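Attaching the record inline, Q. Sequence:
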Amino acid sequence: MAIRTKPGGVLNAGVEQSDSNDPTLQDLFLELEEYQEFPKTCKKCHLPKPERAHHCSVCRKCVLRFDHHCPWIANCVGHFNHRYFLLFMTYLVIGCFYFALVGWKPFLLSLEETGVWEWWMPRPYMALSFLLAVAIGLALGGMCSWHYYLIMTAQTTVEFYNNQYARRTAKAKGEVYVNPYDLGPLLNLCQFFNVGRNYPIYTIFLPIPISPPGNGKVWEKNAMSYSSVQTEVSE
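Structure, as predicted:
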């Protein structure tokens, strides 16, 4: 599903639609005008750029809530397929460590030149499979943990580096930068997996198609963001 699901473009919501029902550029402007007076424009594709959208240099288009372009799935990881991408990594990490857990005894026996070998897989294949499972599990486990951290802090990979720069700049000015999309770890997880309001919590780790909340163009802000905006307006 991470491969086949569209991440979400500016002129479409990542959903298969007929040509007659595709949203037009005018529809997008009308939609964004409800939230901001002058929508940002992408300097590369020259289309309106909703918040949290970024231009992918590989796909040559703006992707909603763009995280990164993954060559392993030949697709961008964005608003509509980020959940499937994370679950794919989670399943793979669990599978690797399960194989390592049940296969460590055969692996030790495969290193011995003597002794009875009771398994159908040849000794070199067993040793290689075990080493690959451990290596992939550790490498992908680190990447999977990194993405869970980003989700719990309401960031994408691109936004993480932007927020790091914003924090350093604010600190140099004696200010504190607050991520406007951070609603707290638990609410961030519930919003990402779309559980609580629309789907039960046990659907988090089920390989079933579940759409994320919202259209990927407008996002809920935390109270700190709203208070800062109100302060600037009052001034």
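Residues 14-22, 226-235 have pLDDT under 50 and may be disordered. Strands lie at 54-56, 61-63, 68-70, 75-77.

More tomorrow.
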